[in-house]
Amino acid sequence: MYTSNILVASLAPFLALAAPRFGGPFDNPSKVAATNNTAAGPSFTTTAIALGTGASGVAPISTSSGPYPTSLPSSGTTTASSDAVAPADTSLANDLSVIGQLILAAKAPDRIKLIPNDASFKFDFNNPPGQSTTTGKGGRTVRADRQSFPPLIGTGTSMVLGFLGPCGFNTPHTHPRSTELNLVVRGTLETQFTCENGARTIHNTLGTNQMTAFPQGALHTEFNPNCGDTIFVAGFASEDPGVQQTAQTLFGFDQDVVEAAIGSDFTFEAKDLEKFRSLIPANVAEGVERCLAKCQIQRA
Fold it and tell me: Would you call 278 exposed, middle or buried from its count of C-beta atoms within 10 A (0-12, 13-18, 19+)?
């Protein structure tokens, strides 16, 4: 009882501040019992993001009250918000001078002082800074890392938001400095990865709100097998996880190295190798033939 009283006393000022802002039950103690005894479970004020692949990529943020949601809104669903959302400050992105100072800062408070604008701590996947987006015929990925979002320096984390169109294909690649947690927030994603020589290949199909993990350095790929859009969020335990596209890297080596890697019974003429290299798609690519045929998509 003594410990509980201390805990309540220590939290009381914060609860008093939170109640008028968030409309929680703590502005009226009688609401607590009513909330906790609700048949449908606790009620929360929730924030949802409707993700899309239109011009903006992500629909406006909407707020609603009710039981905790089990899924994101359907495609195109938006709810007007009473609060205007200020834009993110992207002035620090790609600024090597600031990035260097943040890396050399002795302590976290020193890093905070180097970022005087609160809006610099916000990253907008709707309007990302330059050099943070990779676009291919099958979709795009938007990267928030220590270069595009310098406030991440010192946190040991980064994130990618991926938009795969119908039959979109994130070509096989590795992340040399981090495991990836890949969460599907819309649509379906077929995934494959293999950790190393001797390990079997792991195949999975992920639906909305399902996740898989690609171990650090594991060769992996993601593919949207359907005719609608798929959106995924990838979290990393590194501010700079790195990425290496496997096919593009292999065929960037000298001709004799490529021929030796493929096998002695298969050789390229120099002109044929250059032609083959030119045919390797940039990431994110259009997917496999069976999906293109199903969705009646003509390969560009």
Answer: exposed
Burial class for 6, CB neighbours closer than 10 Å (0-12, 13-18, 19+):
exposed
- 3-class SS at 269? coil
SS3 219: strand
The mean pLDDT value for 272-277 works out to: 64
> Could you tell me the two tokens for 209?
């709100």
Arithmetic mean of pLDDT, 31-38: 42
Which of 224, 225, 204 lies closest to 214 in space, CA to CA? 204
Where does the pLDDT of residue 21 fall: very low under 50, low under 70, confident under 90, or very high at 90 and above?
very low
d(CA 61, CA 73): 11
> Residue 256: which residues within 8 A CB-CB, separation 6 or more?
none
Rounded distance, CA 189 to CA 96, Å?
36
pLDDT of amino acid 288: 74
* CA-atom Rg of the chain in angstroms: 24
State which amino acid sits at residue 162: G
CB 153 within 8 A of CB 108: no
Q: What is the pLDDT of residues 143-155, one digit of tens each?
A: 999 999 999 999 9
In the DSSP assignment, the letter for residue 265 is T
130 band by pLDDT with thresholds 50, 70 and 90: very high
Q: Residue 220 burial by CB count (10 A; 0-12/13-18/19+): exposed, middle or buried?
A: buried
Distance CA 250, CA 267 (A): 15
The predicted structure's pLDDT at residue 47: 31
Report the C-alpha gap between 57 and 125 in whole angstroms. 8
CA-closest candidate to residue 48, choices 74, 22, 25, 23: 74
Contact 210, 231 (CB under 8 A): no
pLDDT class of 24 with cuts at 50, 70, 90: very low
